[in-house]
Specification:
single chain, 232 residues, alpha+beta, 2 domains, 53% helix, elongated
Length: 232
């Protein structure tokens, strides 16, 4: 009887512990909503790629998690983007080399045309000058196009590595090396019932879907980053 009584006493305690346990998302979102309300941009910047500005969207006064979606895992590598950038740089350099060869071969006429353009854009050109101006304009358009292509390739890498850098950058850890990184993006959606206070002071309940992502790979586990909040 004593053993049975002791066992029965343990059951309520176990249930209490289970009922009080909270998912890690609860503490994470609590910290984020508090930092957002306080306009603690440093903390928000470490936790999220999106902002809830209390002066614009309002602030979350309290919330409860209604559901946590299953994790979605997507392979992550930057090799194709790095290859595209290298190809754009190679193509641009080859173009510039050819352009310089043309420029050196026609430098006298090019300088004449440029001087006329500055002094009197409507002045009549000789047949040779007109020919060079057309060719030089084509070269200038090519310079702009190749520069844009190279810049676009670099911007694509920066955009793609943003989440990985934010997730994996931690004290004592090496910086992200896109050239050697292979891993995955882990995504989940957390739905919360939030009591929001508007900038004007009124309150209303809203259903927010918070997308949380983290990156793992090369033996490292990244921290969670909020990448989207729907329903604001």
């Amino acid at each position: 009887m004593k053993k049975l009584a002791a066992l029965l006493l343990l059951v309520p305690a176990t249930l209490v512990v289970a009922s009080c346990s909270r998912p890690p998302e609860q503490q994470f979102l609590t910290q984020f909503f508090r930092a957002s309300k306080a306009r603690d941009n440093t903390t928000v910047g470490r936790m999220s790629a999106v902002v809830i500005d209390p002066r614009v969207q309002g602030s979350v006064e309290e919330f409860s998690i209604t559901s946590i979606g299953e994790e979605r895992r997507t392979p992550l590598t930057f090799a194709p983007l790095l290859e595209a950038e290298a190809k754009a740089i190679e193509t641009e350099q080859a173009f510039l080399k050819t352009k310089i060869e043309y420029q050196n071969a026609n430098i006298k006429l090019i300088e004449e045309v440029l001087k006329i353009e500055q002094m009197n854009p409507t002045a009549k050109l000789t047949a040779a000058q007109e020919k060079v101006r057309g060719e030089w304009n084509t070269w200038r358009e090519g310079i702009s196009a190749h520069a844009k292509a190279t810049a676009s390739a670099a911007a694509a890498i920066k955009s793609a590595t943003g989440l990985a850098e934010a997730s994996l950058t931690q004290p004592g850890q090496p910086a992200l090396d896109p050239k050697t990184f292979t891993g995955e993006t882990i995504t989940k959606d957390v739905v919360v019932a939030a009591m929001m206070k508007s900038p004007e002071g009124s309150t209303a309940e809203k259903t927010l879907t918070v997308t949380i992502e983290r990156v793992a790979g090369n033996g490292r586990e990244g921290r969670p980053i909020i990448t989207k909040i729907a329903g604001l």
